[in-house]
Amino acid sequence: MGKMFAPTFFALVFVAIIAVYIKVVLQLPIPGFYKVLVALILASLIVTMGYLLIKRHKEIQEEDSDDLSKY
Predict the structure, then answer these.
(1) What is the pTM of this model?
(2) 68 pLDDT tier (thresholds 50, 70, 90)
(3) Contact 20/42 with Cβ under 8 angstroms?
(4) pLDDT, tens digit, 9 for 90 and up, residues 14-63
(5) b/e map of 21-37 (b: 16 or more CB within 10 Å)?
(6) For 61, phi and psi rounded to 5 degrees?
(7) Residue 70 pLDDT level (bands cut at 50, 70, 90)
(8) What are phi and psi of 64, to 5 degrees?
(9) Are 22 and 42 in contact (CB under 8 A)?
(10) H helices within the chain, ranges in order?
């Protein structure tokens, strides 16, 4: 379980930072189309991070205890 803490923590920090960026972009005095476009791009980063986190958790669960044998 300890191996899963770091990836989850950093993913949550990343998502929080991107959420702040989305909030800032939505408050900028620019046309609504650009706000939505930038917010969708940033939201896609959040979705990608979620996918990578799930993939990493599966990878950790399947991993052998002896990683040195891979090198």
Answers:
(1) 0.78
(2) low
(3) no
(4) 999 999 999 999 999 999 999 999 999 999 999 999 999 999 988 888 87
(5) ebeebeeeeeeeeebee
(6) -65, -35
(7) low
(8) -75, 160
(9) yes
(10) 2-27, 32-62
* Tokens standing for residue 43: 């939201």
For residue 13, how many other CB atoms are within 10 A of its CB? 10
CA 39 to CA 53: how far, in whole Å? 21
Cα 31 to Cα 45: distance, rounded to the nearest angstrom: 22
Indicate the residue type of 62: E
How far, CA to CA in Å, does 41 sit from each of 28, 51, 70? 16, 15, 37
Which amino acid, residue 16?
A: A
Can you give the residue ranges of every domain in the chain?
Answer: 14-60
What is d(CA 23, CA 34) in angstroms, rounded to the nearest whole number?
Answer: 14
